[in-house]
Amino acid sequence: MKGIRKCYADHQCGYGNICKWGICKRRECRKHKDCPGNQACHYPGIYIDYESYCYEGYLGYCKDGYVCVAKKSKKRQCNGKYDCKLGDHCVEGFCKPLPGFCSSDGDCDKNQCCAKGNDKHGVCKSNLAVDFGVH
């Protein structure tokens, strides 16, 4: 590839190249093991939460256009819904609260908070409802 070639999408850059930040660049990897250190092969522009996606021993294969990004490795917590406690479900190997249920305010949508009852899980409620004591 000679000179700087501007682009909007990978197909404008030719085989083995990607469009990164508006400029054609060479693909960095095809597999996770092509990346240095604690990095994984990832397609730019697609968000993958490596905190929950990557787990020990995983080596996936990638298509053209992938780049190396930092990852953190964790062991899987679950393989199915019965591996999680009541009120949680298994999402990509990790137990997460069911939609509408929560264990902290961070599990709820913006302008909501986690209103906890007597059990381990709370329910996401509007901040306004909690302020006025509506439970």
Detailed description of the structure:
With 135 residues, this protein is mainly beta. Among the domains are: 28-75, no CATH class; 88-126, no CATH class. The chain contains two helices and ten strands. It has helices at 50-53, 127-131; strands spanning 17-20, 23-26, 29-31, 39-42, 61-70, 88-91, 94-97, 101-102, 112-116, 122-126. The strands form four sheets. A three-stranded antiparallel β-sheet has the order 3-5-4, with no helix packed on it. Strands 8-10-9 form a three-stranded antiparallel β-sheet. A hairpin with a 5-residue loop joins strand 9 and strand 10 (122-126). Residues 45-65 and 130-135 have low confidence and may be disordered.
Give the key terms:
three-stranded antiparallel sheet, 10 strands, 135 residues, elongated, 7% helix, single chain, mainly beta
